[in-house]
Amino acid sequence: DFQEESCYIDEIQFMVCNRPSLTTLNYPVSLSICQSRYLNLFPQFDGNVVSFSIYSGSLPSGLLLKKYTGRIRGTPTIVESMRVTVKAQNSSSYRIASISFVVQPRL
Asked: What is the C-alpha to C-alpha distance for residues 38 and 13, in angstroms, rounded to an integer?
């Protein structure tokens, strides 16, 4: 369900905006990637997101989460398995999504 942003002028002449709540956040559930290969991963979400952050766990070494886009990017540097939970939030709600990463040795 898509919620449109609606704004109106109230009785004392302030503009009030009702922004859609954050309803979904999706990343791949698991991802196998090759060490030394660049990763550029964007989330899918519905609603208004103000920021993204690491809720629990951590990203594989060499990967970064962009605060305002939710993009996970970088080049993994170590062969490892990691699980991270990302939190997307706005002023009225938040959603979380977990990703399991397996970094394979370079070929």
From this structure: 51
Q: Closest by alpha carbon to 86, among 18, 28, 3?
A: 28
Phi/psi region, residue 92 (left: phi>0; alpha: psi -120 to 50; beta: rest), is alpha
Residue-wise pLDDT for 67-102, tens only, equals: 999 999 999 999 999 999 999 998 888 999 999 999
- Rounded-to-integer distance, Cα 37 and Cα 81, Å: 15
For 58-63, which contacts have Cβ atoms below 8 Å and span 24 or more sequence positions?
58/82, 58/84, 59/84, 59/101, 60/33, 60/101, 60/103, 63/39, 63/101
- Please state, in angstroms and rounded to a whole number, the distance separating the CA atoms of residues 91 and 57: 24
Helical H runs in the chain? none
Contact status, residue 23 vs residue 92, Cβ threshold 8 Å: no
pTM of the model: 0.79
